[in-house]
Amino acid sequence: MTRWAVATAFLLLAAGCSEEVGPGTSSGGAPTNDGTRLEVDVPASGRVFLRLAEPEVVVPAGDGAESTDWDLAFSGYDVLTNSGLSGPGDGGALPISREDYEAGELPGTPYLIADDAGGAFTRWYAYDSAEHVIYSRFHVHAIEHEGRYWKLQIITFYGEVQGTPVRALYRLRYAEVLPEGPGPAVDIEALDATAGGIETDDTAPSACLDLAGNRELMLTPAEASASTAWHVCFRRSLITVNGELGGPGKTRGADLHDAETADEDKNLDEVMQRTAASEAARFDAIGYDTLADPAVPYRGDHIATAFTGRWLEPGSNPPAPAKDVAWLIQGADGQSRFVLVVDGFEGATASSPGRVAIRVKQVE
User: Fold this and answer.
1) What b-and-e string marks burial along 273-296, b requiring 16 or more CB atoms within 10 Å of the CB?
2) Which residue, 25, 312, 346, 291, is CA-closest to 178?
3) Which residues 6+ apart lie within 8 Å of 285 measured at CB?
4) Is residue 289 classed as helix, strand or coil in its secondary structure?
5) Is the dihedral of CA 17, 322, 307, 319 positive or negative?
6) In angstroms, rounded to a whole number, what is the distance separating the alpha carbons of residues 244 and 231?
7) Do 344 and 106 form a contact (C-beta atoms < 8 A)?
8) Which residues have a Cβ under 8 Å from the Cβ of 297 and sit 6 or more positions away?
9) How far, in Å, CA of 331 to CA of 68, rounded?
C-alpha cells in the first residue's frame, strides 16, 4: 500500500533522584501511583527506543523499522509510536488532558492515532464529532519553493453539484508574495479532491496545484509521487506538499497559525462561525517579511504522530514540554496500554530536548 493510501485510510477512520547516565541510556526509579520515572537522553538524529512495560531503553535489531520490540521512540523533537510509517507494530497514542489523567479518568475504548505522513496541513481543520462535519480553521499556510513564497487559505471542504452537497470539493485562495508585495489572489471554487477513500483504489486522480504556473493537475497517487510539477496536492481531507515524504520536489510548508490550534479545539463554536469574508483580513495581512522570516518552521511532509504539534509548550524557548497534556499509548502488541507524562527537559537545544524525564504507568 502506498503512503497516500495509508494516509487516506487513516484520515477516514475517523520527582525523584536518579543516577547519572550516558548517551542512549536511561535511569529508572521505583514504581509509584504516578508511574515509573525514566530519564532518556534523546539524540538530535537517529532514534532512541523505549519498551514501556518496564519501562526501559532497548536496542532493536536494525533501525527498528521491522521490530516490534519497542513501543515508543524519540528522535530530536519527534516522538514516534510503533505503528504506521514508524514501525510494524499495532501501537498508537492519544493526547488526554493532564487533569483527566490525575483524576484517573481515562477513555475506555479511544480512537488511537497511528503514525502517518503529515506536515503543514496536518491540522488544517477542526472536527465536529457530533455532526461528523469538518470546518476549516482558516489558518494561513505558507508555501516555499526555491526562494519563492505563497500563502494559501482553505475556505471549505464542501462543494455542491446540482444542488447536492459533496465532500472534498475544496474552496480556497492563494497568492504569490513578492518582496514588493503580494500578487493577485487566485480563488478556486471547486477543487476536485473527491478521489480516494476506503471504497476506491489508488488509480483515480485527484487535484494538485502548480502554484507557479497557476494551474490544476489531476494526478493519481503514483503520478504525484513521481512528479515535481506540483506544489500542493489534495485527496479527500489529506493535503500534502511536494517535499520529503510528500513527494520528490523541494516544496516546504508551514501553518502560520498553528499556535492557535489547541485553543480552537476547545472552542469549536468559534471556529464554526468563521467565513471567507470574516477571515479575509487574516489572509491579506500576511506579507513577504512574515513568509521569509527564518523563524517560520518550513519543511516537507514528514511522519506525524499523536505527539506532533502537541507535546511542546507553544512559544517556549528553549523548548519545554506542554504542561496540560498526558498521553495514552498502545504498545506494539496492540493490547498493552500505558499512560505517559513528560515532566521536563534538561539541556534542550534547537535540535533535541536533551534528557527527557517521563513517568510511565501501565493501565492495561
Assistant:
1) ebebeebeebbeebeeebbeeeeb
2) 291
3) none
4) helix
5) negative
6) 12
7) no
8) 254
9) 9
Q: Answer yes or no: are the C-beta atoms of 143 and 241 closer than 8 Å.
A: yes
| Burial of 58 (C-beta count, 10 Å sphere; 0-12/13-18/19+) | middle
SS3 content of the chain, % helix, strand, coil (to 5): 10, 40, 50
Residue 262 and residue 234 in contact, taking contact as beta carbons nearer than 8 Å = no
Residue 353 scores a pLDDT above 90: yes
Beta strands 186-192 and 252-255: pairing type? unpaired
DSSP tag of 44: S
Per domain, the residue ranges of the chain are 3-115+305-362, 121-302
Region class of 138: left (phi > 0), else alpha (psi between -120 and 50), else beta: left
C-alpha cell at 98: 493532564
In the beta sheet, which residues pair with residue 355?
A: 41, 346
Of 213, 121, 129, residue with least CA distance to 170: 121
Rounded distance, CA 279 to CA 237, Å? Answer: 21
Write out pLDDT tens, residues 298-351. 989 988 899 987 899 877 888 999 999 999 999 999 999 999 999 999 999 989
